Amino acid sequence: MTYPATLDRPFDEDAARPSLNPGPVGLALAGLVLGAAYLNAAFNWRQATLFLVGGAAGVVLYHAAFGFTSAWRAFIADGRGAGLRAQMLMLAATCLLFFPALGAGHFFGQAVRGSVSPVGISVVVGAFLFGVGMQLGGGCASGTLYTAGGGNTRMLVTLASFIAGSVIGALHMPWWEKTPSLKPISLIAKFGTLAALAMSLALFGLIAAITIVVERRRHGNRAGVRAGSDPVRGPWPLAAGALGLAAVNVATLALAGRPWGVTSAFALWGSKALAAIGVDVGSWPYWSVRSAELRASVFKDVTSVMDLGIILGALTAAGLAGRFSPSWRVPAKSLAAAVVGGLMLGYGARIAYGCNIGAFFSGIASASVHGWLWLVAAFVGNIVGTRLRPAFGLKI
Description:
Blueprint: H1 22-42, H2 45-63, H3 68-78, H4 82-104, E1 106-107, E2 110-111, E3 119-120, H5 121-137, H6 141-149, H7 154-177, E4 181-182, H8 187-191, H9 193-219, H10 238-256, H11 264-276, H12 285-288, H13 291-295, H14 302-320, H15 332-351, H16 356-365, H17 369-388
Antiparallel strand pairs: 1-2, 3-4
Helix pairs in contact: 1-2, 1-14, 2-6, 2-10, 2-14, 3-4, 3-17, 4-9, 4-10, 5-15, 5-17, 6-7, 6-14, 7-11, 7-15, 16-17
């Protein structure tokens, strides 16, 4: 197997392909089957299906090593643009189905709405913090879940800190909502479906073209190639990952009536934990308008159910690839980066109205201007985060 040398991934390119890890595979598949059965009985078939869609997302993310964090760092540090081009493909494929559905207001009989949020200071600051946190924590929202599920123990620390940062962000959200901002802007509402789609596709093409120019200037026509793809055990081509994640988001829209998200569940989990030990989180303004969500079971929350599915799906993929081998030896500096990065990820995602999935992927796929603003601010944050990595003993 050959990969671009700068990309972080759960595959060891120098090792011979190991055998199946039957224990993790069996445990994960049992969790997916039993979980779906429970959700179907306790709630409805849509909730069960969304759980399985989350599981599929975990498999796609792991087998395609589809990392937003590593892809951005590869371009920033080494001029490699394959990961960014895959993200543009993912966005283009999703928009082709999202824009007509959102313009019509329904999709296969399901009423749908996009992820369209205000455009302002909180998005800029939050996305920048999230970008720095991506590089220090070692992952984004989806990346943290799938690498943790795949057996990366350091990412469990990032995830715990991510949850803590999300809770703090929820507590501070009323202050950030008072900072200067514009009302949510939808390109579909402003220009119409076809014009908005044409503008978005043109921007995706422009970004992809820029990555090609930069890559050729740095490396000529030499590009990293991923060979030896196995549909069951991986690795998968980045294009397969891009189209797979597009399918996940389209399925989420069709089933849930809104696009895919990840991090709102972290604020919910952390707040419920605080409530369980006596903290009156229900009095927080953030939760006063979401009181029903706070009181309900986490299994009623679509985002929570899909997040749990991602973890189990990644565990399944890691076991199928024979790569599930957790190591508890993590350098102190790396752990410190996981804590700091996780806090920045959680806090940034809350005040920016989303993460790399909810704001970047689903925001842009919803024709929301805040998604594009998030992309710019988060990319700048990734530049800063990449420069900070050596201070924590992390490779660039």
